[in-house]
Specification:
six-stranded antiparallel β-barrel
Length: 997
Amino acid sequence: MSAEPAESLERSVRLDSPADGPGLDPHRIAEIIAENSSGRRRGSGYRISAGVILTAAHVVTDATGVVVRCDADRPGEWAAAATVAWANEGSDLAVLTVVPPPAASAVIERARFGRIADDRHGVIGVHAAGFPLWKQRRSPDGAYFRELHQADGTVAALSNLRTGTLEMTVTPAGTDPDPGASPWAGMSGAAVWAGNRIIGVVAEHHRPEGAGRLTAVRLDRALQTCDAADRAELARLLALPDTGALPLAVPGESREAWARGVRVVGVPVAHGIELFKNRTHERDEIARHLNDPAARMVTITGPRGIGKSALAAKVMDLLDRGEWPRPAGGPLPFGLVNLSTRTSGISLERLYFDCARLLGSEQETNLHKVWAAAGTMQDRLDELRAAMGDRLIVILMDNLEDLLHDDGSIADQELAVLLDWLFRVPATPRLLVTSQVPVRLAPELRRFAAHVKLSKGLGPAEAVALLRELDRDGSLGMADLSDEELLAAAVRVHGVPRALELLVGVLADDDTVLLPSLQDVLQDFTQRDSVVAELAQDRYGRLDERAHAVLGVLAALRTPAEQSVVVEIVDGLDPDLPVIPVLMSLIRVHLVSVDRARRTFALHPLDAEIAYGRMPRHGPFRRQAVQRQIASWYARQAKPRGTWRTLEDIEPHRRQFDHLVQAGDHDSAARVLNEISEWLVWHGSVLAAVSMHLAVDGHIGDERVRLAHTVAYGHARLSAGPMEQAAQLFTEAAALAERLGDRPALQNALFGLGDAHRQLGDQGATVEPLARAAELAHELGDTEREVHARLSLSLAHSYLGDGESALDGADRLHAIAEASGDPLTAARAGNARTIALLTLGRWQETADAGAETARAYRAAGSQEAIAYALNAQGIALLALDDPEQAASALEEARHEASLMENPRAEGVCLLNLAWAHWRDDRLTEAATTAERASTALQIAGAAQAEAARSLAEAARALPTARQAAADALTRAAAALDGNAEVIAPAWLTDDARRLAD
């Protein structure tokens, strides 16, 4: 037995047997947040019934308060205080009770429990879901959160018999963010499932055993080792029918059963697949490489028409049917992804979402959230890799030469990122590539790549069989020819599959009574250098205008299309053209291929290239007219903005954009892009937005369209960088908006310019554009934009040390809040005022304003800046020489920052709290808190991490080594940057001088 995906669990229950339990329900997975005297501890748990949570005892040991949260950041999210109803440190199990709010999801059926047999060898598929540290992520608003992780793995029945625990083997943690803590910290308490029954909970991660092994408590052993009273109470809470032996759990499906359900995403490369002939040696070689964990990429190369795509498609087809080409064995792939530059395109975004679709709806939803979050592309790919686990996924990339330079070096930036990732991750996924030229890789990567070269056509037997199959009804005279004569014809065209198809196509297309013989055709073509190209060019020379028109449409589409789509597009150009008869004739002469299962038509890449090149310069079927008509068809498929949920929903807009660019209509293309650019950026496809803007930049004639494009392009660069280019774009947009008198666009551009300067670290340059943006928003009556601009402007003044101007901005915000009655605007006004007062050193007012601002944010139902307000209150209380009250405020600030999962804010609060402990002569607490601050600030990449480390050294040095403490304090002061939201460097240097005296 082995691991299985969560969505497969329901299938493991026989339909003719009673259900063996409800199984893992994502709405019942609980995040446990326990508070104690040393801070906060996170763990996982499972809601086994409406008000009962199963977790690990060490998660809630010594807790002064416990909160249970379910469906975090999802519809139906709820949290409630919990009580420890039962805990046993010996078994490390605990049961919590909770009163869920009325809106909490209903629990229809209690969880069931079981055990695994440990009296014989066995490997059992198990799974668990929780919130480990390595899944910490950042949302678009800057807050940190822990994403849910589904750990699929196995338990070896005979392992850990001595300790009576379960050894879970899972996919190793994707990262190790904190050397001082396990990357699996927070997973403790997650229920461990075998089939649809809980058999234990995750308890420990022993680092020496590696990042892919977890230790879990066995529920059956806990029941055996507890005393009678504890056992009875645990059985009551878990609603066990008796305290005897638990039933054997239903094991998950075997890996073989799992693999039989191979899934396929993307349009298969179907050219010639139905007529594919052996190439047994090459198929076996490809299979051997794909089955080799050391090989990451297998490339099939060869000239046009040799059969690269057909060979790759045949291998994928066999895998889809559950067969490895001989002699390869081993587990079949979990899934297959088909990508082609000639259909859906090849991009990181397409690869990411196609692989996500393979993994089931829950994983797909999580991966969509990761993509939309403000992480790096590397973060997204690492998350995808973690979601894949040890599942073998084969990705076909067809016609990759379109993304390469002539020497095979990589021309496409996204492809370079993808290959870099692919060669660094463990052995899955595997890449199967077709290209006319080999991919040029760095020397150190070549050992991970295999190359299968197709330099020869089909063998004699296969070539003869293909010629006969192409004339099944015998109308072309193939049946009258001997194998020797057909073999001679095949040899003349070198056995190239596409050449054989075109050769027969010439015979099929001749309408004369006296059909040309095979020898006649061969005499015409085999004296030329390029058999395939010359045969194809000749075939196109024999076609009439109607056939050229239909082929031009198919070539311009660059993707397989249904008959109705082709008919609709052609009708828009020439309603009198009989599309269907023309299509049928083109299929008969092997110029158009048909996928009967999907009812789509397509061209061979070589034929598409020739057809597009032969499109007329004038008339209804000229390139520009065809591209515009295709763009119009996609426009009719576009969904209204309010219905957009995923990137697939705006795919028609993106196709429309591409065809308008091909038509040379850059103004219309830019209008489409301006409609979707911001949505692309906010949903993670920043590189795609930048690439699209680059396609029209410098080609737009209409100034208002160019203005909208420049503003949207600036916002895309604000996310993708470089920041200097974003500032330049916003500057250009502001100048153009002023000249055109477009005040809303000017306001948008100025706010973006201020944001760009802020991110460049030039606070002084932020003031003027933000001030103008605020005034413009006020004049336009756009309250929301005015509030954002005035808040940013006030904070910018504070960071520049201009507290009076910052306070004026806070007063303006307060007036807006009074007029609108909006509680969130009132809270933001309080935030601006608190930081301004802090900058001015008006300590008592700061302390009062900070407390009031925290209350205002809570009343508005927002956590946006509670931590910052309370942090300012704490600093003010320190300045007022009240370290005890300061510590209380700063601990609350730290708690709020932790709820937001913002490591920088939490680290700053901890650093300030450590100084409060120092000032209160609580040196042990000061050292411990400063060390925690250093860890949090280091995770956030904040400069104050060194100051926190030095403060911890100073606290540890006392009371004996006063000079060492003074030196450490001096280093800590030097590492601070004077930010008003952090303790003042002068406070530390004053104490350093006192210690040194």
